[in-house]
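Limitations
The structure tokens in this dataset are predictions for the assembled complex, not deposited experimental models. Users should treat interface geometry with appropriate caution, especially where small molecules or nucleic acid strands are included. An illustrative entry is reproduced here so readers can see what is and is not provided.
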Amino acid sequence: MSLKVYNTFTRTKEPFETIDPGKVRMYVCGVTVYDRCHIGHARAYVAFDVIQRYLRWRGYDVTYVRNFTDVDDKIIKRSNEAGVPVSELTDKNIVAFHEDMEAIGVARADIEPRVTDHIPQIVAMVQTILQRGHAYEAGGDVYFDVTSFPGYLQLSGRKLDDMQAGAGERAGAPDATPESPAVVPIDATEPLKRHPLDFALWKAAKPGEPAWDSPWGPGRPGWHIECSAMSSQYLGEVFDLHGGGMDLIFPHHENERAQSWAATGKEFVHTWMHNGFVNVDSEKMSKSLGNFFTIKDVIARFHPESLRYFLLTTHYRSPINFTDGAVEDAENRVEYLYETVQAARALLERTPCDSNPIETEAAKERMQLAMDDDFNSAATLALVADAGRRLNDALTMKGKGIQKAEAVATALEMLDDLGAILGLCQRDPEEVLAGIRERKLARNGLDRALIEGLVADRIAARVAKDWAKADVLRAELSGMGVVLMDGPEGTRWKVA
RNA sequence: GGCGCCAUAGCCAAGCGGUAAGGCAGAGGUCUGCAAAACCUCCACCCCCGGUUCAAAUCCGGGUGGCGCCUCCA
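Predicted assembly:
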């Protein structure tokens, strides 16, 4: 059994082999901190969080680097609009990023470097690239010369000639008008470039922009160079995994690859991994369509773990369609799992018992089989469903105290093992269940005090064996979307 | 115009040559004062047409229909 990973570069699933035995060095492109994170970011970082967790479970010594890009055009624009210093804006968004990620169970990376803390390394790399003849200076800018790298566009599988042909075609796109062409001619904004695909390694500062001294005058890094510089600093010139969203394949990763090659003469990444996009109601998520959701907004309406569960229901490379209904479904599953875990823990507290190692080992092997197949979280979720069912099955076993406790302990351990990899079922059941209930009440515009009053009335009716009245109250609550569960230890209720 | 991805039950979604995981919904059942929850059972031959093979949802060719990237973007 071996781990297989899909490599964007070779377009195939390959047996995973590390450069150094037992060690994985991975770099995932982090966020540009000009705004709050959206659910697309959630998908990417949940995907790589699971990958990182699984690699560690597999016994690899993982070094995970995920950067913050804290200087770029959008940040400068946003800071000017808001009238706040760049550093204030970026600091604030980094804090927000950590809040969002913590909420959805994404662990911090081992190293989270900021671009502005690595300007000397970036300048040094640009110098090296210039010295090796793969870049040129023009008016305080430094551009990468794409024609100097024979392997350019190999990652994205394009051809230089096609790219140029495409640019002309796109300029005539339907939404273009003479006043505002769909595509700004590249030469208009960066007239000093020799080739349209050449890209800036270093940008001369315009008045009022953040700037650092350099051999080419005051300026700042271009978009792609930071990842080449920081990855090599923390992971070495060559490392195992490099990930990010599909959209980064071109130009970002293509350009990173070119720069790193130009600086070292080496292919710097062994395996390229890219996650698919989040669509909203089957359309691409975008601010102009009004279907743009931040993580913060979504987790106010749905429990953060529901979002995480939802994101794991589809393989990380496929597109996933975000709809309220899909997240609600996920939330119901999360609720089911935590109710089950809660009951199991209560039972094991009364009757402590060890699990059956033969069965838990077999379960681990099934998990490994699923996850070894390019981190197939959707297939792994089928195992979660199986563990949940086994657990409930054991919980409802009649008699046989010890036998029952062992069955419960065994199934609970299976669920725990799976949850540890997927980042599910790791929280306090009470809190999660309460969090889900509050959100469901809010979504349905229900008043908790009112419901609790009706539930109390019904309990009284049942005690008096006034079944007719009890049923009327049940119907009333049912009409509100509240379901009642009468059990030996009382009546519980929840929002459907 | 170039490059690429996808098409599996009412819905979502695994599957990567050996005879269709899982979830939701639905039907029946156990349990229950009635219910709910939970559990059990049932529920598809994989967009179309050719081809390769003993064997194809899975490979190849051709259609049809979605989508993405080529521009800031996870």
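Some entries come with short summary sentences. For this one: Residues 166-187 of chain A have pLDDT under 50 and may be disordered.
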